Amino acid sequence: MSDSSDALPDTSPKQQALNWLVRLRDDQLTDADLEDFAIWLASDPAHADAYNLAEALFHDMVLAGREQPRPSSAAPISSTRPLMRSVAPKPRKHRWRRLQGAAAIAAAWLLATQLILPRQAHWLDALLSDYRTQTGELRDIRLSDGSRLMLNTDSAISVQFDAGLRRIVLHHGQASFSVAPDSTRPFEVAAADVTVRALGTIFDVYKTDAGLTRIEVKEHAVAVSAGRETKLEVAAGQAVELREGRPLAAPAPVRLDQSGAWQQRRLIINDKPLAELVAELERYRYGRIFLSDTELARQRVSGVFALDDPDSALKTLTLALNLKSSRLGPFWTVLHR
Question: Which whole-number Å values give the CA distances from 288 to 49, 119, 315, in the listed order?
Answer without folding.
Answer: 21, 9, 15
